[in-house]
Here is the input.
Amino acid sequence: MFYRDPNNWVLTIFWNSLYTAFFLLPLGINLPTPFFIIAIILGLVNIVKPGRKYVLDNKALLLFPIYFVIMALSLIYTDNIPDGIDLLQRSLSLLFFPIIFLFVKEDASTVKKLFDFLLLGLLVSFFINFCFAGYDVSRVVKDNIASFEFSLEGVAQLLSALNSGWDHFIGVEFSKLVNPSYVSLYILLVLSYYLKNKLQSRGQMLVVIILFLYLFLLASIAAYLILIIMCLLLIFNISDKSQKYTMMIVFILGFIVFLKNPRVFDFYSNVTDLNNTAEIDNTTIEKSRLLTWDASVQLIMEAPFFGYGIGDTNDVLIERYKELDYFQNFNFKYNAHNQFLQAFLQMGIFGFGVLVNIFIILAMRMNRSRNEFAVFLILLISLFFESMLVRFNGIVFFSIIIPLLLKKRSILSSTIIRNESSK
Here is the structure.
């Protein structure tokens, strides 16, 4: 299952470090970090080995180092240098991995193993989270049974405790290892990669069912939106009309099941009455995100060209929350929760322009099939709901997956991917 090249121990350790890191991504924030560092070091060693011919192909990958350089230049006009340097250190993979993939030789089977290990990590994380949630519920039930009195009121209290135990299986309470938004992104990309082919065994069907259940329990509204688009694209790609109608019925039934998630029922009420922001209790997660975007746009209008620097962006956002009486946003020190707004705040029109260009080129490369377009939408929409390039897990994931997608031959196909300069 691991990568083996008896003639090149550097690439062997490089790919196996990436495989291990991808397995650990859904299991903890800090666990994969050492393996990504090893992969970066050995990837750079592979570049500088004697006799290499440097022919730059896939020049779109150089947009990532340019983005990193603009981040570094923003330190010139930022006051909070320590925070800026900290973010710059976390973003080193944006500089190194795209350059490494200009010279590393890989084929479709090698890249497929990245998704295989990520899938394995997702399955392990699901069962770990499920056990944690089950343990939490058992403690609640045990405490109520210990004080249980056989009466109408006692039965009502026990049933209420069992009902509240459901909260341990939803959203952040369920995903204790990694933020649900990141896990949802991993699941969607794995699904898009494997669902491009027909399921050929009961085991594969079981894995897909577990991943859908995992998505349901993570309760990410953005992930639900992406999943709906993915399913529709896959259904419209079916040529047989009877099979298409059957899948549409299954889709509608599944859609109804996902609507039964309490987080979906609460979503509409949570984003209404935006003017009621004076009290912390009135500001839900959804409201906080909309208020964050409002504050971010106001600040962008005041400094559209250069932004505020990567060190000061969060500071000026928090100060604006205070001025606008967005108390929950202020107390929790929320970032922009939108990577495009975050980039605009950090580096102005220049950093924003580079980020948008990356996705324009990606859109052009991803127009070969509905499956590839679904992958593009997953990545794009996820950036609209989270500042993915702020946390290390998001930074390193995007600095590997997007450069591989930007290859002139897609990693989503079964064709061989080669760099001519790798010999």
